[in-house]
Each structure stands twice: as structure tokens, then as C-alpha cells.
What we know:
The complex is a heterotrimer. Chain A has helices spanning 2-6, 60-67, 90-99, 117-127, 133-146, 163-175, 193-210, 221-227, 245-250, 255-263, 303-307, 336-344, and strands at residues 11-24, 29-44, 49-53, 75-80, 83-84, 100-103, 181-185, 213-218, 230-235, 238-244, 313-314, 320-321. Chain A is of the alpha/beta class. The longest helix of chain A has 18 residues, at 193-210. Chain A is globular, with a radius of gyration of 22 Å. Chain A starts with a helix and ends with a helix. Helices cover 68% and strands 0% of the residues of chain B. Chain B is built from 15 helices and no strands. Chain B has helices at residues 17-20, 23-31, 45-54, 57-74, 76-79, 111-147, 149-164, 167-178, 182-209, 212-219, 224-232, 237-260, 272-279, 288-315, 317-320. In chain B, helix 4 crosses helix 14 (288-315), helix 6 packs across helix 12 (237-260) and helix 12 (237-260) packs antiparallel against helix 14. Chain B is elongated and about 75 Å long. Chain C is built from 13 helices and twelve strands. In chain C, helix 4 packs across helix 5 (126-139). Chain C is globular and about 75 Å long. The interface between A and C is large, with 41 and 49 residues.
Amino acid sequence: MSGTAERQPMLQVTNLKKYFPIKTGVFSRTTGYVKAVDDVSFDIYPGETFALVGESGCGKSTTGRTILRLQNATGGQVIFKGEDVYAATGDRMRVLRKDMQIVFQDPYSALNPRMTIGAAIREIMRVHGMATGNELHEKAERVLETCGLQRHHASRYPHEFSGGQRQRVVIARALALNPSLIVADEPISALDVSIQSQIINLLEDLQDEFDLTFLFISHDLSVVKHMAERVGVMYLGKLVEVAGKRELYENPLHPYSQALLSAIPVSDPARRQERIILKGDVPSPANPPSGCPFHTRCPYAMDVCRSVVPRLRRTDSGRHVACHLIHPPEQHNGDLSTVETRIAH
Amino acid sequence: METNEIPGTGTQSRGYEEAEIPAVDLEDDVSTGTVAPRRRRGVSEWHQVGKHLLRNRGAVIGLLIIGIFVIGAVFAPVLTTHNPIQNNLTMRLQSPSTTHWLGTDALGRDLYSRMLYGSRISLNIGLISVVIGVAVGVPIGAISGFYGGKLDIFTQRIIDIMIAFPGILLAIIVVTVLGVGVQNVMIATGIASVPIYARLVRGSVLAAKEQSYVEAARAAGLGDASIVFRHILPNCLAPIIVQSTFQIATSILWAAGLGFLGLGAQAPMPEWGAILSDGRAYIRTAHHLTTYPGLAILFMVLGFNLLGDGLRDALDPRSRGN
Amino acid sequence: MSELLQVRNLEMSYYTEGGRVRAVDGVSFDVEQGEVVGIVGESGCGKTAVSLSILRLLPSPPAKIEGGEILFEGQDLVKLSGERLRRIRGDDIAMIFQEPMTSLNPVYTIGNQLIEAIRLHQQLEGKAARNRAIEMLKLVGIPRADEVIDEYPHRFSGGMRQRAMIAMALSCDPKLLIADEPTTALDVTIQAQILELMRELKERLHTAIIFITHDLSVIAEMSDRVLVMYAGKIVEQGSVVDLFHDPQHPYTQGLIGSRPSMDVERERLEFIPGSVPNPLHMPGGCPFHPRCSHAMEICRREMPGEKQGENEHGVRCWLHLDKSDDQARPLRAAVGAAEE
């Protein structure tokens, strides 16, 4: 942990915001915003796997897309290898794109049905001038082979493959450009259970072999535990906790992280556990609660939580949490002793 | 508990096995022998579409009808018995006979020959107006859908206005402005179909734009032009093809309507609508002058519509099954 | 305890353009009163087909029940007439589906739909039916039930809709509830709520549940007994503890081993090679043999029968049955030689 802290981060995300306008009427007037990503900051270090977890609509996928500039951010900064992604234009942006790739959730819609997979891979390699002619064919086939497919598969169309194989193709396409960062957006959740572990193993092997850095986006906490070194927990567009995997899974600090971890079904019938069951539903991101977004479901909510938005701050142990229980706001002189007993629970 | 170790060589450790057993491979590789050819082409989707189309009875009937008309049009000089525009006043308004298979009109011209040459005109109008509609409407729709924003709102309002007019009315307005004649009919029916294509393509582009392979192309650094032409439009082809089949039928009908109104082909051109219009005066005495052109229009439109229905099913992966 | 449902040698096929798909192939199992039986398997393994066959909800054609018996309290549902079957559906056996959005009719209020079900099956009218509906909504933990009852489904979130579906299913005191992936479309924290609710209701109402899912951990949480299905067949069944602690079939072992565990850290995940077979080109013999690392000569030719172990732990695998040396020759080498 301390080792990674001293290194230069590969990716620095600072106060990233993505608001989607809500448009109504004939003239499409903007009447409000969905704050899909709201003031999110984190760093990713070279060679690590950083995971974003959270439930549907928490903004984890949008975060990944705004980092790659597949959607433009409303505010904030993304620095990749020292370069401001949002300041890059034209050719510079293309070079950055080559270095940051994405693997999608749904391998069925991620491949153009009218192109053979070889053509799809060759096309992007050609755009970046990575090879021509026979060498191009050779390289495309080799990357398929690296991802566990066979060379002759290059001449086939996506519909000829199973879901797991398609996901291999999608990974091969991302890998073809020799990127250093891969954003993996729920890469296994559309696959059958028996195929999921094949893809997880493949991603891990590729990480070792090509020194890749992953931003791993998932709602599946057991997979994240297997894959990630550090984890960020998102709720309603905000990052509520960032911590090393072990710290988070053994001792989650934010009440939402606690509930999320406790909600995972345990695949051992002998150990059915008591769990924290959250009340109510996730509020709509178009109309988020005031103050801390989690206060409507939080078992420990205090008055201050309803009015003051907690900032993501460093704890003494070097983790980051956005919660008034951990970092009582200065102006609030609440009864700290009760707070501590609550955390101890 | 026994461990689930997978026997395999080093190269297989990465789940290479999966590639060996998929269902498709089973059938393919059995048929092609054990050694897969290096650059075997994949099974293209168009191949499947064709197979499915030929299994659809309606589509086959449509194709047959269109085929007959096309053969008639192409080989009209060989297949006709008389000059279609030569008057022969001694043979006016003859009923069908062995010399004049479908009878003659008020100027003694052979109806069969006129109809055969007429199918040339109708098919031409149908095809060329569709080409015009596609050439103008598809780019408008594609740009509008792909870029969105103010431009999209602006073009969509104009298209709303154009769609608010019935197509035939729009065509009449255009012909009135440009003047009568077959060429102007083609332009008019073409323009009248532009909003239909623009709207259709915009919708398909909007849907295709959301697919992650488009996002992947963007993430790979591809330019807008290659994204639109290589990734989006090829996936919008199916609705365009289906619409074009129906649009040929509609244009033929519109052109016949314009001809009937005297706004289309001018005498002595043997255009079906015009023949029908000329025959109207003799509907009591020589009904063959209205019956046969009417039937010809009916069947040609029916043929294209049947084909269009079949294509729509064949191009829809859901109805085609796996 | 007495048997509530006995399924015997159920055979069901779909007739598609591509040919016959044997979706359910000789499936037998029992459900006792008040018991939760989990059916686990991957997409296309036939788990949903089994549940739809029990209620005969399959469109025919293309589906056809071709053999076997489904005995519910002694009556064979396969032979039952439409009228009698309708009375059993909803009255004695209720079902909840994966997608609560499409299972509720968007043009009627939640109350309307609930009251209709109650009127149909419980002969309650007017005020009494409405009160019963409100009572049911309260039972499944929907707040402000007396107001919410007049809302339309689109005003409900996914979790609330699933609660409403459960209320509707339970409104007629069914003896058996079939839940087909009821939490798959939901978020983890909402899934925890629904599972908790179902457990609570089961204790209180003593309803037997057939719980169908692809998620092993949900099965581990919910079930008393588990059936593992692969390619239309039950390959292993037993008590939930036996199955998770001592899985016998290579497929079950692979499924359990390939899930990352929350407790044990592992360098690499185990995996099952290959993919789920195409139902139109089902491998002969044991359908799992092309993906099985223990496959033997005999696996390719013959589907093994069931071997009953202790505690009604049954498995269909040649590894656990007697066979000759010749039949036991490992298949992997043989396949390899054929491919060279």
C-alpha cells in the first residue's frame, strides 16, 4: 500500500462531474440535471487494478466513459500519464485513445455484426499505423491467439461465436492497440457463470503479461475482491469510500459499504449470516436527497447528514471516506462518544 | 474433493479449450474436414437472408411478378408485336384478338406493346426516384441523427412539415414548379420520398449509435466519417432496403397518378397512368383500355410490396431465428 | 413430511425451425410441504422450462410435454383439463418472475391487479377484497399500503414491484410458490431485502418454494435442497449442505470452484472449459463430456443413471458408477489423437 502511494499515479481523476440535462417540451428546454457523476476524485497507479463498485445508476459506468472522453465531462480534470485528457485535441487525442482502451459489458452489442472480427481488429490497428499488409493480418491473428482464440477465427463474423468467445474478441480488440490502461466495464456480468471465471483468468493473465492497469467497474463484490487491489465505492454519483481491498472488505467504514458488503449472499449454506438490510430504495439521481445522498437509508443518519454534504477525506489510516460519522463537520459539535460506539458496531 | 485440473499444454492454459468446442465449430469443422482452411470466409449474413427469403412464399411470388415485368421491360423490342406509338386509325378501339393481344386504343395503337414499353417507364421511375430519395434522404438522416443538437431539431422540423403533406400532393407541387414530363416526375417522386428516408435513417442511426461497437470505434480513435460509413450505416441497411422496396411501389403508384392527371408522361409516351387516363373516356365501350393498365399497376405494386414484406422478415434477426 | 409435488421423468421439447430441442429431459424430483428447493443452472439448462411445465404455461406449439407426470397432491397436472388447471394456478401454485416490470400490467393500478387475483381465487368481494389486498401489501413490507394500492406500476421501483408481485402470488395462500430468478434484475441491497422477505414469509406461511436461479450464492442462502441442471437434465441433487460441501458431479464442482469466494483468497479461479452446448447440437452420451476433465470413453456413448448416496444425495456421473476398464479409458487422450 505504502509502495503504491509513493509512485506517480497513471491516472488522476479530480472533481469529475457529469450532469445529464433533463429536457422537456417541444423546444427541449433543460429543466433539471441528473448528476450521474458528482465530484469524483481518485488516482490509479501503474500496474494495479482499481475497482469501482456500486449498484445500478450509481454512476460507475459513466465515470469510466467520461475518463475515456466517450462522453464529455461537465467539469473536473482527468490527467493520464501527466497529460490533461480534456485539453488534448486531434492527433494528440488519438494517441491518448490508443493508450486507454475499454472492454464492454455486453459482448453482443460490442462487435459490429457486419464485420469479421479480423477486419474489426485490423481496422483499428490500421488507424493507428501499427502495421500494414501481411503484417497487419499476422498481428491481428496473433492478438486473437493471445486471448485464447484461434487464428482462423479472424475470418468469422461475431454471430458465429458464443458469448464467452465474443468477450475474448472484445478483449483482443482492446489489447490490439497495446494500451497501458484498460477500462473494463462489467466485463463478465453478461456471461454464463461457468464462462465468467475463464474471462477473469484471461484478464489477470494479460495484466501480468502486458503490464496492464485496469479500471474494473462491477457490481459484483466477490469478483471485485478477487480482481482488485484498491476499491472505490460509489453511491448516487458520489464516491463514498476508497480503500485498499483488504481494509475495505475486512473493515468497511462507510455505512453504505457496510450494508453493501453484508448484502452479498454467501455461497456457504453453513454460514448464513445476520445482515444489515437497508430500508427503502435507491433515490432517483434526478432528484437526489439533500446533504449526504445516503442519509435516507442510513441506519446512523444524524441531523447534520440531512443538510451538509460530507466530503471524501483521508482518515488516519490512509483511507478515504465521505461520512460525517468518521469526519464530524467542524461546525457540528455532536456527541462524539455515541458516534464512536456506533462505528464500533 | 477432487480438484478440477484441466489437462493441457502450456499454450492451452488460457482457456484455449473454449475455442475448440463451440457449437458452430462442431458443425463447421466437421463439414470442412479436420483441418480448418486458414482464411475460410465466415458465413455472411446476406447468405442467410437470401435463404430465408426464398423460403417465404409471398416473397417468391413477389419476385416472380417483378421478374416478369423486368423481363418484359428489358426485352420489350423483341416481345412486342407493334410499334407502341404508331397510330393506326383504321384499327381504333379493337377488342383483344390474335393480332392485338390486349386490343387497341382510341388511336389504334396496340395496347399490349404500349403496356410492355410502359413497364420500362414505370420501373425506371420507381428505381430512379428511390435512388434520388436515398441519395438525398440518407445523408440528411445520418447527419441529423449522428450529430444531433440544434441541426437535428432544425432538419426534423422541416421534415415534419414535408411529411405533413401527402406524398402525392408534394409530388404534384414539385411537378407544377418544374413542369410536366417523365424526368420531372422522377425528381418529384424522389423528393417526395426524401423525408421518409431521412426520418427512417435518423431513427436507425440513433439506435445504432447507442451500440457499444460504435463507442468502441470511438474509443479506438476512429474518425466520424469511418464511424458513420463503416460502423453505423451498414447496420442501418436492412430498414433502408425494405423501405426502398415499398418506395418503388409507392413511386410507381404516384407516377401513375400524375400520369393520370396529365402531369406526368406526355402523349404519345406509353405510360400506364396516362394510358389509364386516355382509356377512361371509353370505359363503357372498350373497358380493356382501363382494365389491363389497372391490373398491371396493381400487380407491379403488389409484387414489390410482397417482396418488401418478405425482406422485412428475412432481414429481422428475431424472425429469422438463430 | 408429505410430498406436495412429485415430478416424474418429465420430458418437454420445443419444436423450432432448426429442429427439436429437448429442453427438459427425464427430470424427476420431489418438493415437500414447506420446503425450499433450489434449481440452479446456466442459461438454457432447462430450469425455467421445468417451472413453466409445472404450471403448463408453455405456449404449444412450439413447446410440447412429451412424457412424465407432475403429481401435485396426487393429481397429475399434465392430464388436467383447462378449467381445473386454472383453479390450481394461483390458488394452489403461484409464480413470480424475473422481470417484475413486464409481469405487472401497466394500465391497471397495483390494487386493481391484486384485488382481481383475490376475487378470482378467494371469493372475497368489494371492501373485503380491498382490505385483504392492503393487508397483503403490508405483509410484504410496502410502506403506506393503503395509499400505494391506488398507484400504477410505473410509479414503483424494481424492488417494490417485486414485492407487489410477491404479494399477488401469496394473496391466495398458495401451497407452492415458484420463483424464477426473482432477484436477478435487482441490485444487491434490494436483493437482500427480497430474499429476507421471502425467508420470513416462508416461515410464517409455511409455503413450499421452488427457487430458480443461476446464482449459486443465492441458492446457498435460500434452499433446503438443490437440483443442479445441465442441458435439460438434473446432474446432481441433494441437501444444500451436502451439495456445497461435498459436490460430486464435475459440473457442480466446476460451478462452485469458478465463483470467487468472499472468504477464501485464491490466486487463480478454477474454470469449466468450453461453452454451454447449442441445444440443437447436443453432444451424445453425457452432455457435459466435451467440457469435463474426467471424461471417459463411456461418457461419450451413454448417459449415466443416478447413483443415490447418503441423505438422498444423487448424482448422474460415470465416475461414481461401475464400468469396465475399457469403458473407463480417459477420453481426453482419445479426442486428442483424433484431432492430430
